[in-house]
Design brief:
With about 800 residues, the chain is of the alpha/beta class. The protein is built from 35 helices and 24 strands. It is globular and about 90 Å long. The N terminus is likely disordered. The structure holds ligand 26Q.
């Protein structure tokens, strides 16, 4: 970090004068002494002042109109950096640049000082961040509710090719975006017992912690509205037990502090398998209870009557992580506000909506009943009461015993467990999937019986991404070119990108799009050279797979094909191969052995291929360390080819797929998640689809799929697998990948072998298209023109009209 004082010069504008004043009075430095970090803080504080005015005005407007508010409850918000986003949405980027230039400072340098707010794992957390921005953009009064983790997503280091996890200390230099609201503090209880008090029921928790709100403003496009992201932090009610301390028990005296700290200490770094630890359930209840109490408190304070809650509040559950909200809201309505159970139940359902993000059985949350009962005894009673109601309805509707067992909130098949997805389903009036295919599969698989019982509840809301961050801010070159071509309308409404269709065959525009891409690739190549010491050729095809590492996402399929291609290039050096750079990035859950092995394999393959002179620059492989939101903002604008190759039926939606297409990359992908809808929008000729469909995958599994037979029928595949398994890429430990590859021979649950030939053949079609640059450019334009529908503004508009009844 630069520590040189920055040269002094005179203030050149009103805004500049404001920054200098802030530097002096809030940061406590004058221009002579100020370091880069002081200017960074001053710039944000100065910008913040304008944001606060809009924030207060937005809040007032909602109160005055007594408007309905949306409450988005999410364990994760993967926000990334805020400075560029806030400046751009406030329309103050130029002003800021000018003010900083007057002091010899560079905005992009200051932007790099901001740590990523990585309070999320991947897709689900990033979706929540895009949604917050679109809610503000559409002028919908909304609060995001979550946890202010002290350590968000871990930082990934690669040591000798292996992932090493390090804590990320994003708060080390303070956080200029946040506002602590000590007045918004709630007592959250755990454990204890439930006693009868006349007709009423009283829960006496054994433990208490305080939840305190810390707010961050969320600026919508053009600063129309500023909403609130409210994250909870925890503190002990009695931080230091003085009697214990005085009695000499210094550690015991601090136990409460430690217990509170642990609730907000870390984000669980798993994104696809339920961790199942007690601390996770405590975190879920902590932030959910604080949020629901805050919502109910606000409603009663302003409306007086709890019975109108559903008219003024829509609570959306981002997956099942906050589904204890169903029981907590029931508890507040019945135990605290004295409603009858039936009335409370109707009110709860009208208020709550639930979004499902996964069908993977191992990711469906359920808690051992004894644990749940010990931690939340009153909620357990309420869940039993809800269950008996629901099962009565099921009986009346004529459900079979098997159907009743699958609808029940309690899984009785082994040790008894509370099913959080069933709880969320029965407690919500709307249950939505995140892409059309995913929603259909929800109806046919996990929720089949619940869907039969409540056929009006499941609906689809295909995901979207915010075009401000994922086009305007990350790709100013392309944004400028689109403005020159079709005007500014698309900035307010991405549907207008469709005007580019008229220019899809304009060779001049095609070349300009390619020139922007070339510049973005050169910038990425520079960055990779600087940070990793690897030289990439910006004229090669940048073929990119960046996402969490998971077997269902099939980074392994990409790697096997890479090895096969390497083989081919060496065997047939005379052919005119398309030069490719294969870029991989992503984190593995700490406990996910095979995911970590896939990272190591990527690095082993990279080392071997990159140092082999016989491929002569035709093939390079890079694994970029610590992939995060900021890295995505560099890579996506520089990608030619977007890898979206999950086993069909397993990726609920995907959102990276949308970001790449919006930035003019072509997709190679399976008919999975939102790829299906992307294909419908861009047209079959402008996307490379391959592989089994979800239905075919299910059929193959049911019919006793035999990967060995498939491998025997594909020489290329067999050779690549043998090379990896026999240690060609791991001479230091030749058996390193034996188990991994054996898994493909033995079961191949994710169908890598089944899809290999189709994938490899499709990659060769990609080469053919690349060799016709005019055709490639025209496809890129078609992609940009036709993915405007995947804006999160469209998605949020649908939630607003069809689920929340706002707008
Ligand atoms: C649950 C219990 C205990 C510990 C961790 C978890 C946990 C945490 C995060 C389970 C799942 C997640 C995250 C899931 C996720 O990111 N899903 C993705 O959501 C995206 C937005 O809808 C989709 O686009 C992706 O397809 C989906 O994989």
């Amino acid at each position: 970090m630069a520590s040189e004082p920055v040269p002094v010069s005179a203030a050149s504008s009103e805004f500049d004068a404001h920054i200098v004043k802030v530097l002096r009075h809030r940061v406590g430095k004058d221009e002579r002494a100020a370091k880069q970090h002081d200017w960074y803080n001053a710039a944000i504080f100065a910008l913040r002042d304008s944001i606060i005015d809009r924030w207060i005005e937005s809040t007032r407007r909602t109160y005055d109109a007594s408007g309905k508010r949306v409450y988005y409850l999410s364990m994760e918000f993967l926000i990334g950096r805020l400075l560029r986003d806030a400046l751009s949405n406030m329309g103050m980027t130029r002003e800021m640049e000018a003010a900083l230039t007057a002091h010899g400072l560079d905005l992009s340098t200051l932007e790099e000082l901001e740590p990523d707010a990585a309070l999320g794992n991947g897709g689900l957390g990033r979706l929540a961040a895009c949604f917050m921005e679109s809610l503000a953009t559409l002028d919908i009064p909304a609060y995001g509710y979550g946890i202010r983790y002290v350590n968000g997503m871990f930082r990934q280091r690669i040591d000798d090719g292996w992932q090493v996890e390090l804590p990320e200390t994003w708060l080390a230099h303070g956080n200029p975006w946040e506002f602590e609201r000590l007045e918004s503090t709630y007592d959250i209880g755990f454990g204890g017992e439930v006693v009868a008090d006349g007709d009423a029921v009283v829960w006496n928790p054994a433990e208490h912690v305080e939840a305190t709100a810390i707010d961050t403003p969320v600026v919508g496009w053009q600063g129309k509205r500023v909403n609130t992201l409210r994250l909870w932090t925890a503190s002990p009610i009695d931080p230091l037990k003085l009697d214990a301390f005085n009695a000499g028990d210094h550690f015991g005296a601090l136990a409460e502090q430690v217990r509170a700290d642990s609730l907000v200490r870390v984000l669980y770094p798993a994104d696809s398998s339920a961790a199942g630890q007690e601390l996770r359930l405590r975190q879920e209840f902590f932030f959910t209870a604080a949020s629901v109490q805050d919502i109910v408190r606000r409603h009663v304070q302003y409306e007086g009557d709890i019975r109108t809650l559903h008219e003024k509040a829509a609570i959306q559950l981002n997956d099942t992580h906050p589904s204890v909200a169903v029981a907590e809201l029931m508890r507040l309505l019945v135990d605290i506000h004295g409603l009858e159970f039936n009335e409370a139940w109707e009110l709860t359902k009208k208020t709550i909506g639930y979004t499902n993000h996964t069908l993977l059985p191992e990711a469906l949350e359920s808690w051992p009943l004894p644990l749940f009962e010990r931690l939340l005894p009153r909620h357990m009673q309420i869940i039993y009461a809800i269950n008996s109601r629901v099962l009565r309805e099921a009986r009346k509707a004529g459900c079979t015993d098997a159907q009743i067992a699958s609808i029940s909130l309690i899984d009785e098949s082994g040790e008894r467990r509370v099913r959080m997805a069933n709880l969320a389903f029965v407690g919500a009036h709307s249950i939505n999937g995140v892409a059309a295919l995913h929603t259909e599969l929800m109806k046919e698989t996990v929720f089949a019986d619940l869907h039969k019982l409540y056929p009006d509840r499941i609906n689809n809301k295909t995901n979207g991404v915010t075009p401000r961050r994922w086009l305007q801010q990350c790709n100013p070159g392309l944004t400028g070119l689109i403005r020159e071509s079709i005007g500014d309308g698309f900035l307010d409404d991405t549907a207008k990108l469709a005007d580019l269709n008229a220019l899809a065959h304009d060779a001049v525009l095609g070349e300009k799009v390619a020139a922007v891409k070339r510049a973005n690739k050169a910038a990425l190549a520079d960055y990779i050279k600087k940070t990793m010491g690897i030289r990439l050729d910006p004229d090669a095809m940048f073929d990119v797979q960046i996402k969490r590492i998971h077997e269902y996402k099939r980074q392994l399929l990409n790697l096997i094909e890479t090895v096969a291609l390497y083989d081919q290039i060496r065997s047939h050096p005379e052919r005119d191969w398309v030069p490719r750079v294969k870029i991989f990035g992503g984190k593995a859950a700490s406990s996910y052995h095979n995911a970590k092995l896939i990272i190591k394999l990527t690095n082993d393959i990279a080392r071997r291929i990159n140092s082999d002179p016989s491929v002569g620059g035709l093939l390079k492989v890079v694994f970029v360390p610590n992939y995060n939101v900021s890295y995505a903002e560099r890579i996506i604008p520089a990608a030619d080819l977007s890898e979206q190759i999950s086993t069909a039926g397993m990726e609920a939606s995907g959102t990276g797929n949308m970001k790449f297409a919006l930035n003019g990359a072509l997709t190679i992908g399976t008919l999975d998640g939102a790829n299906v809808e992307i294909k419908e929008h861009v047209g079959d000729e402008n996307i490379f689809i391959f592989g089994l469909t979800a239905e075919e995958v299910a059929a193959a599994r049911a019919d006793g799929y035999k990967p060995r037979e498939v491998i025997a029928g594909s020489r290329e595949l067999g050779q690549a697998l043998q090379a990896i398994a026999s240690g060609v890429f791991s001479p230091d430990d030749p058996t390193r990948y034996e188990g991994l590859i054996n898994g493909i021979y033995e079961s191949d649950w994710f169908m890598c072998a089944a899809d290999f030939d189709a994938y490899a053949a499709t990659q060769r079609q990609v080469d053919v298209r690349w060799n016709d640059q005019k055709a490639w450019n025209s496809c890129a334009i078609r992609n940009i023109a036709n993915v405007g529908w995947f804006s999160s503004d469209r998605t949020i508009g649908e939630y607003a009209r069809e689920i929340w009844n706002v707008l």
